[in-house]
Design brief:
about 375 residues; alpha+beta; Glutaredoxin; four-stranded mixed sheet; 12 helices; about 45% helix; globular
Length: about 375
């Protein structure tokens, strides 16, 4: 009996070892990727970009010739990227291997096909499961956006169709991530949707990851999220150290004793930029009552600096340069952008805001100025 159990243990362990070995092989590859693509419906010279979603930068770009293009480069690990062409996009999993991409220009995200290694194969499988619902909610959204409904009843039907299809789409997405936690794609899905998964389940998923995945920033953030105290309204704020955009040390507790408005955002987040400009308009009256702190989730310093200048940020602008999977962002339980916190002079978080609304700034101004 003992020998049988020992054999069974080896059988169960082997797939994990093989997956881990393959993931390590990907990391150690030095050849890079070569992506040969074709986008029909483009004119010669149309720009195609390969954009790293996490790092917010263009890995490579090329111009089409008879619809074809070639992109090449190197990624440290399988990486979720956008193929961008005009106003269209598609998400692929870039791996250091030979890859292909084929699509019409119109509605690329719904109509493309791609080949690569294991991660892209998983993405293809996920696409096949999700696309029926993606088509339904995309069509419903377009009809609502263009007001292609006959009356209020028709509008309500379209809204219900959109919400139902999107719910199915997201359920498939999250379950796929949970069922493929031995992949970079599965890890990314679980990380992005950690709030929808019970913490005990997150810990089980974390413990079932191959070692190479468990060592990643996203996996570490999942472990932190599931086991550490998170910033919550009504609780004392969580202190942290970072650096300002000018490279100077910054500690949040140095501002204790006055109101603090702490906002997490990124240069690529439109609502974040709108909030920055709204604060800039009212800064002359705000700064007397509240210390404003922008916490940037950017790791592209040039873009961060350019956005700060355009948004007229003269208040504290800081970052840990750990990006979207950073420890501070995780401890403050930030998933949507912008996410902001109002901390009172005693250090208690008294408000949490998700998303941008001009009324938020007016509410903050009213609280910190003591207006009843």
């Amino acid at each position: 009996m003992k020998n049988s159990l020992k054999f069974l243990g080896l059988v169960l362990l082997c797939p994990l070892v093989l997956v881990s070995a393959k993931l390590n092989a990907q990391n150690k590859s030095t050849k890079g990727f070569l992506l040969k693509g074709e986008i029909s419906g483009t004119t010669d010279g149309t720009k195609v970009k390969l954009f790293d979603i996490e790092k917010q930068l263009v890995i490579d770009s090329a111009n089409t010739n008879n619809g074809t293009f070639v992109l090449k480069g190197y990624v440290n690990e399988p990486t979720a990227c956008w193929i961008l062409c005009k106003d269209e996009y598609a998400i692929i999993q870039v791996e250091n291997t030979a890859m292909t991409f084929t699509s019409p220009l119109q509605e690329m995200k719904l109509n493309y096909t791609a080949t690569g290694d294991r991660e892209q194969s998983l993405q293809n499988e996920l696409n096949k499961l999700q696309r029926p619902y993606e088509v339904i909610y995309t069509r419903a959204y377009d009809s609502l956006k263009l007001k292609l409904y006959s009356d209020a009843v028709h509008k309500a039907q379209l809204t219900k169709t959109f919400n139902t299809a999107q719910d199915h789409y997201m359920n498939i997405y999250i379950n796929y991530g949970r069922n493929h936690i031995d992949s970079y794609l599965g890890l990314d899905i679980v990380y992005r949707n950690r709030k929808q998964i019970p913490k005990d389940s997150l810990l089980l998923l974390y413990n079932n990851m191959p070692p190479v995945l468990r060592a990643t920033d996203k996996a570490q953030s999942i472990q932190i999220y599931a086991t550490k105290r998170l910033a919550e309204k009504g609780e004392y704020f969580l202190d942290f150290k970072a650096h300002t955009i000018n490279g100077k040390p910054f500690k949040l507790s140095d501002l204790k004793g006055k109101y603090i408005y702490l906002a997490f955002g990124s240069f690529s987040c439109g609502p974040c930029r709108m909030e920055n400009l709204e604060i800039a308009k009212k800064y002359a009256s705000l700064y007397k009552h509240v210390a404003i702190v922008n916490f940037s989730l950017d790791i592209n310093r040039k873009e961060w600096e350019a956005a700060a200048k355009l948004d007229q940020i003269v208040w504290s602008n800081v970052s840990d340069m750990e990006g979207m999977a950073g420890k501070i962002k995780t401890l403050y339980n930030v998933q949507a952008m912008p996410t902001s916190f109002l901390i009172d002079p005693k250090g208690i978080i008294i408000e949490r805001f998700e998303g941008y609304n001009e009324a938020n700034i007016a509410k903050i101004a009213k609280i910190v100025s003591g207006v009843k």
